[in-house]
Amino acid sequence: MRKTTLLITTFVFCWLLSGTFATAQPMVKLTNYTYSPQRASIGKIVSKNATQPKVKLIGESAKLFKIDRNNNLLAQKAFANNNAKWHDVVIEFAITGGTKRDTMRIVKDQFIQNKVIAHRGAWKNTGATENSIAALHHAIKLGCEGSEFDVHMSADSVLFINHDPTVHGVPIEQSQSEELSKMKLENGKYLPTLEAYLKEGMKQNTTKLILEIKPSVVSKERSIALAEKVVALVHESKAQGWVDYISFDYDILRRVLELDSDAKVSYLKGDKSPEELQRDNFYGFDYHFSVLQKQENWIKEAHERNLTVNAWTVNAPNVMDWLLERNADFITTNEPELLLQKVANLKQSAGK
Ligand code: MG
After folding, report:
1. How many angstroms does the Cα of residue 78 sit away from the middle of ligand 1?
2. 161 CA distance to ligand 1 centroid (A)?
3. How far is the CA of 208 from the centre of ligand 1 (A)?
């Protein structure tokens, strides 16, 4: 008798627990979060369990968007003339015992395409502190395609932006967020949280946010927990249209893709072939340039497999030229001004 009670209690507990996690995940999502005036179709509304959910648009969204019979979200004509940088789409869908609403942010795709990714923001020639919000502002002002930054997690699971695992000798992972939020950067500003950084980056729609998830120095479990926290915060912030993910840890990136199969995810370490990355649904690779100089065929192979090619950290003019000649999609650099000039010169000579 006691055994039966224990079994029932365990079952109820597990059921409650699974319910808690199920509701923590978004139940519907879009396959794409950017809008371009050149194409009416934005993305497909899909549910987590792969069935086609019954959905409808709510409020103002219904004036600017529509949903076709295959659950594709389409822009109405009125939307094309709208100058807003982004729009919130409110979708209602059926769940067991009622309906639920979810808001998705569609960003107008005016993202610059010039290959230039500012490494830790644009700091070297601007006087900004690397990885600061000021360095992000400089990258945006310069007109970089992307601004890269690094994310760690405090002991109490708050996400902070910093390159090293320590700030002024204080280890981020072993410290409480209250202590870390009081720490100042060289520029006198507080250590930024990911939440604040995303909020700032989402005020514009020309420079993408290249989010590096730093592997934990404590454990693999914390690396995976960090990946989960990052994806949850990006989704809560409705920042999917702005963010691409990178990491040296393959398991971190695979976890990101498990949580969001449409996330743009690129691997940094340099030890996976384009074939492996394509098989695992990656967006591309972001390898040290020396890896690509040794394995030049990976650039062509990546493009044939519809993967993007990025290289870090390219500061020498001759390496920039080498990658531009091979049509790398992105080049990550501490010298965005120089690379921007090179790209502009190439564009000018191609136009002649
Ligand atoms: Mg980095």
Report:
1. 40
2. 10
3. 15
The pLDDT score that the predictor gives to residue 15 is 46
Length of the chain: 352
Reference 288, options 309, 265, 313; nearest CA is: 313
Distance 120 CA to ligand 1 centre (A): 6
Residues of the chain short of pLDDT 50, as ranges, are 1, 11-25
pLDDT at residue 17, as a whole number: 43
Long-range contacts of range 51-59, CB-CB < 8 Å, 24 or more positions apart? 53/27, 53/28, 53/93, 53/94, 54/93, 54/94, 55/28, 55/91, 55/92, 55/93, 56/91, 56/92, 56/93, 57/89, 57/90, 57/91, 57/92, 58/90, 58/91, 58/92, 58/101, 59/90
Domain covering 116-351, topology: TIM Barrel (3.20.20)
pLDDT at 8: 54
State the CATH architecture for 31-108.
Answer: Sandwich (2.60)
Crossing angle of helices 220-236 and 194-201, rounded to 10°: 40
CA–centroid distance, 287 to ligand 1, in Å, is 12
- Residue boundaries of the structural domains of the chain: 31-108, 116-351
Cα 207 to ligand 1 centre (Å) = 17
